[in-house]
Structure formats: C-alpha cells, structure tokens
Amino acid sequence: MTTKDDRLFLITGATGTTGAETVRLLLERGHRVRALVHREDDRSRMLAAAGAEIVIGDLLDFHDVSAAMRGVGGAYFCYPIAAGLLDATVVFAQAATEAGVTSVVNMSQISARREAASNAARQHWLAERLLDRTPLLTTHLRPTLFAEWISWWWGRQDDEGVLRLPLGAGRHAPVAGVDQAYVIAAVLENPAPHDRQAYPLHGPVEMDHHEIAGAMSRALGIPVTYEPTEVEEFAEGLTSLGKRAHLIQHLSNIAIDYRNGIFQGTNNLIEVIGNRTPLTVEEFVTSRKDAFAQSGSHFVPAKKN
C-alpha cells in the first residue's frame, strides 16, 4: 500500500545489498527517493526506471555530497569496507547538517567497538560517535554477517559446493540485505523513537558453518561442505586474488572476532521495527539460486602444495 508523502530520502550505496532494496521499498510506499551512486550502470538505470532520482557522486567529495543533500529529510549512510570511512562520515555529517537534514540511518557493523583489532570495525565505532555528536536524529545498525556472504565466498565445481572460511566453530544468524532494508525504511519513515540507538540485526536462526552448508545443500539439491581454514592461509588467498590490504586486515581480524563469539546471537528487531519476518538460509538460497550457479567473487580456493 502506498501513501502520499512529500519527504525526500537520500540513499547512499544505493546499488548495494541494502541500498537497492531500501530504494525499492521507499518508492513502493510512495516516497520520493534520491539515489547517490558512484557511476551510471545497469543497476542505477534499474533504480531510475523504478522512479528514483539518480545522482552520481563520491562520498569523499564534499561538494558532491552537499549537492545530493539539498531538500532531503532523512538519509541512509552506507560506506563500503574501504579506506576513507572517517573522512566520508565527516563529509556526510557536515553536508547533512548544513542542508537541514533531520535524520540519518548509519550502517555500522556488529564488530564495531573501541577495542576492535580490525581498523574498519574500530573506525565504524568512531563514526558512530561522530554522528552522535550532530543534531541529526541518528540510528546505527550493527548487522551480523550478511546472508549474501555465503554467495560471495562459496566455491562450486560441477555439482558440489564448498565454504572455505577461517571461522572455526563460531556461530551467527545470517541476515539478508532485504530484511535489513525493512528496518532502514521504517526508521527513515519514523526516526524519533530510534534516536541514538544502536541495533544489532540478526537473521532468525543461529548456525555454525557446517549447519549453513547443510541448509545450502538442501536448498540447492547438491552436496555442500564447510572446510575451516586458518586465518593466515585465508589472508594469503585474498592477497592472491588482488584484494586490498584494508579489506584483508578487516576480514582477518573479524574472523578471530567471529571465533570468539562477537557475531553470535539472535533477536526480533527485524520483526519489531521492520514488520518483516526475516529469511532463513534455506529461503535465502532458494530465492537466489542463480547466484549459486558458479563460485562467488571472493572464493579462496585451497592452497596448492
């Protein structure tokens, strides 16, 4: 059901896992949406076709972000795992304040904390503190590992699949981007009750990766196994794939956090805030079988002897 609403929402990271779904939801609900994207491509053209206003810019460019903020009532801030988060947060906060933006939903992560060994995780904690010091109504989202993670990191050969990750026997409840989008949209629509809150977001079932592999196997109809690896081997594999040092440092350290239980837990925040029943792993994989037709973009193959 759509409603008439003159508010304009700015969605950054608008072609990403949570951003694109948030754009879609807000448009379906009758809102005006401005999507900030890094470049024009098929993804941004799809958002434009759905009714979003597309602006091309860089979150590290103050003039780009200031222009994107004009007339905006609420904004979603989502920065990738890349260098520059704190600079981008300063740019975003100043531009939003100058433009009279009322509220922000900030995508953080569950490992964000003062003592984090991951540079990215610690920077997310600092970014939260910075946004808390602005006049914006501010809500931080701290999701556990996305359900999309399994499609990015899995390997497929013929009719078998494998998850090769340095996560030991740790556990988490995978949470899909679409489910997080319902929370993002709900908070943008009614930000006041959520001001200065940090919400950990989880999927419906806590699992280890052997159990996740089993759920994938049932959904895909092929054998899927979990092969635990060591952090050092994983990092070497990422280096061989050409991944950036910032990402490798982050993933190596959150792997240790994961083993230590930082990512575990479940709650009902997606139901309570987003009015949405979150997807199980089997439901997620079943709904996206095409994504599992080949190895994921981040798959690290076994080290050759």
UniProtKB/TrEMBL annotation:
InterPro entries the record matches: Ergot_Alk_Oxidoreductase, NAD(P)-bd_dom_sf, NmrA-like
SUPFAM superfamilies recorded: NAD(P)-binding Rossmann-fold domains
Domain of life per record: Bacteria
Ranges of residues in domain NmrA-like: 8-236
Pfam families xref list: NmrA (PF05368)
Listed PANTHER family: PRESTALK A DIFFERENTIATION PROTEIN A (PTHR43162:SF1), PTHR43162
Record's protein name: NAD(P)H-binding protein
Organism: Streptomyces doebereineriae
